[in-house]
Amino acid sequence: MTNSAAPNEPIYERGWLNPTGLEIFRWTLKTLFDIFAPMTAYGKENLELKGGYIVAANHMSYFDAPLMFVHIPRGRTMTALGTDKYKSYPFFAFILRMVGVIWVNRDAPSPASIKAAVQVLRSGEVLGVAPEGTRSRDTHALQEGKTGAAYLAITAGVPVIPVAVAHTDLAANDLKHLRRSHVSIAFGKPLYFPAPARQERDAKLQEYTTELMCQIAALLPPEYRGVYADHPRLKQLLNEGAAAVSALQGD
């Protein structure tokens, strides 16, 4: 596999903010959300885990990662998997380097990127992942998930928390027109994926990924469920009431 980073450029850049600076930055982001895009969060108790874990969210806006970061428990960091194209965007690169980033070529993640992500998780930190691999720019609804999050979870031996972000797709346009948006985020229960036998790995990774994406879809309003809207597993989850944070739908 290849990565577009130059040989002398680091794959993993640990955030340079100290713990106090990190909390100030988190408070600043929360204040900005409160002013320009008031947020509602559900299921934050599911983040109170010891050790490393993955937070895996749907992705449709530049507001998604900051919204997730704001709610990570106090005293914990969240390293982001960031596509290396953002290195050429000074503002986004600066923000990512403040909190910690692993640069990834989303078309062909390098072994070095994967190794860094596993090390971050095994060291007890939180890793932020967008399992779709890219933003849903047109429909803002779920796209098919890639198996990377499931692979990292079983390799590092950590749980994955499904995260559903809603209405951040409206925030940028509303901000341009001096309107306030109301955004929501829901954290589902941790998913634990057993390590599969070698001969079953590919099939199990796909099975785990489908489970993760359907869990995210179950936490989203119907218009955001995308390719998983009619999936039998999603229907089963909704029928079982597994989407306990369905308040995102205004229920």
SSE arrangement:
Layout: E1 12-14, H1 19-36, E2 39-42, E3 53-57, H2 64-71, E4 78-83, H3 90-99, E5 100-104, H4 111-122, E6 126-129, H5 148-156, E7 160-166, H6 168-176, E8 183-187, H7 201-219, H8 232-240
Helix pairs in contact: 1-2, 4-5, 5-7, 7-8
CATH topology: Glycerol-3-phosphate (1)-acyltransferase
- Order of strands, widest sheet: 1-5-4-6-3-7-8-2
User: What gap, in angstroms, lies between the N and C termini?
Assistant: 45 Å
Rg, alpha carbons: 17 Å
Helix content: 25-40%
Question: So, CATH architecture?
Answer: 3-Layer(aba) Sandwich
Order of helices and strands: EHEEHEHEHEHEHEHH
Question: Keyphrases for this structure?
Answer:
251 residues, alpha/beta, Glycerol-3-phosphate (1)-acyltransferase, 8-stranded mixed β-sheet, 8 helices, disordered N terminus
How do you describe this structure in short?
The protein has 251 residues and is α/β, with parallel strands linked by helices. The chain has helices at residues 19-36, 64-71, 90-99, 111-122, 148-156, 168-176, 201-219, 232-240, and strands spanning 12-14, 39-42, 53-57, 78-83, 100-104, 126-129, 160-166, 183-187.
Describe the protein's architecture and organization.
- The chain has 251 residues and is of the alpha/beta class.
- It has one domain (12-249): Glycerol-3-phosphate (1)-acyltransferase (3-Layer(aba) Sandwich).
- 37% of the residues lie in helices and 16% in strands.
- It has eight helices and eight strands, in the order βαββαβαβαβαβαβαα.
- An eight-stranded mixed beta sheet has the order 1-5-4-6-3-7-8-2, with helices on both faces.
- Helix 1 crosses helix 2 and helix 7 crosses helix 8.
- It is globular.
- It starts with 11 loop residues before the first strand and ends in an 11-residue tail after the last helix.
